[in-house]
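Priority: medium. Attachment 1 of 2:
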């Protein structure tokens, strides 16, 4: 413990290690491309966020509504923050009502939870029906994730609940915005911790855990199993040296949060470049009417294919100047990969047979 404290103190003094503002390079399997931008027009929406395959079709959240390719299925009356499907049961988390369940007719079938489950960012079912959940933060709702980052909160938690009895067990606490979770076939759980930029594998009882993917050059979100093994990992926003610098300047951050509208914070976002009032680095200035794709940006589109060992093997990008930023979820269905783009307001489809990720 003493060595950890000393090493962290030295890191802060020398600006190295966890205190460095340098970032991992987008290289190897993460080499930038324009594959997201090259996809055909998607299904238009307002702010599609979480997509699942259920009862032979697709279903996704958009604001307070549950949408399918055939139209609106239900309106929950409050913004939906996560959904998950299992057999004829649909788990839905909303800002105002927390975690609830719907049957195949979209009728509520929710137990009396032993502990309230609010501010949910991600959900996944066990094969036997138990539901795992991520609470991104107990200080800020999922709609205020940018504030949670700028306040450097670590009040997130992970737990599971029984849809029948309503029993809730908290397994992990004091996390930096857990935003994705998946139950593996061996019973272990993997989750992404956005503000720590890593993915963790954890025993079901939380007794042991290990980082399986570290130093991600963005903020990792939801995880979804790949048909060939491994997982899809959605990176919902980019890290940058400017943001890392701001996070290390407490006086500036506090003044920014207090005095400036959230639209104009120096903070990552689902989309950017829509207003001349937004903060901008010199490298993001247009030259001869062109924004360079490698320009510093507050938003980015990135989905990463991980193999069974959590090693990145392929990726899909929408770079600076692109519009398909803020990819928040992914699901495979009938040989296609479906993606929700918060930045562009559309649900995208990629044919895995002709354009798919590496096996």
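Attachment 2 of 2:
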């Amino acid at each position: 413990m003493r060595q950890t404290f000393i090493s962290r103190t030295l890191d802060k003094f020398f600006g190295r290690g966890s205190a460095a503002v340098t970032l991992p390079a987008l290289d190897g399997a993460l080499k930038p491309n324009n594959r997201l931008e090259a996809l055909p027009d998607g299904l238009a929406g307002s702010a599609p966020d979480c997509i699942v395959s259920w009862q032979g079709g697709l279903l996704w959240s958009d604001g307070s509504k549950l949408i399918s390719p055939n139209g609106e299925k239900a309106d929950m009356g409050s913004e939906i923050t996560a959904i998950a499907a299992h057999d004829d049961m649909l788990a839905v988390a909303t800002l105002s009502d927390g975690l609830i369940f719907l049957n195949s007719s979209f009728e509520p079938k929710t137990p009396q939870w032993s502990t309230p489950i609010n501010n949910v960012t991600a959900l996944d079912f066990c094969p036997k029906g138990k539901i795992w959940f991520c609470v991104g933060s107990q200080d800020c709702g999922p709609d205020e994730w940018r504030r949670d980052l700028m306040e450097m909160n670590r009040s997130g938690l992970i737990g599971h609940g029984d849809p029948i009895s309503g029993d809730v067990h908290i397994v992990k606490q004091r996390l930096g915005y857990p935003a994705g979770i998946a139950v593996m076939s061996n019973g272990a759980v993997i989750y992404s911790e956005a503000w720590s930029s890593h993915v963790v594998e954890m025993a079901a009882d939380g007794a042991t855990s290990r980082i399986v993917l570290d130093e991600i050059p963005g903020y990792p979100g939801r995880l979804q199993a790949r048909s060939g093994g491994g997982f899809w990992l959605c990176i919902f926003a980019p890290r940058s040296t400017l943001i890392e610098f701001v996070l290390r300047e407490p006086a500036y951050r506090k003044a920014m949060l207090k005095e400036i509208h959230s639209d104009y914070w120096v903070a990552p976002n689902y989309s950017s470049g829509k207003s001349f009032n937004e903060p901008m680095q010199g490298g993001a200035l247009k030259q001869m009417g062109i924004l360079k794709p490698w320009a510093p940006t507050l938003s980015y589109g990135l989905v990463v294919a991980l193999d069974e060992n959590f090693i990145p093997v392929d990726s899909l990008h929408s770079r600076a100047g692109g519009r398909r930023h803020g990819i928040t979820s992914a699901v495979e269905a009938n040989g296609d990969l479906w993606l929700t783009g918060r930045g562009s307001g559309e649900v995208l489809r990629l044919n895995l047979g002709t354009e798919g990720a590496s096996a």
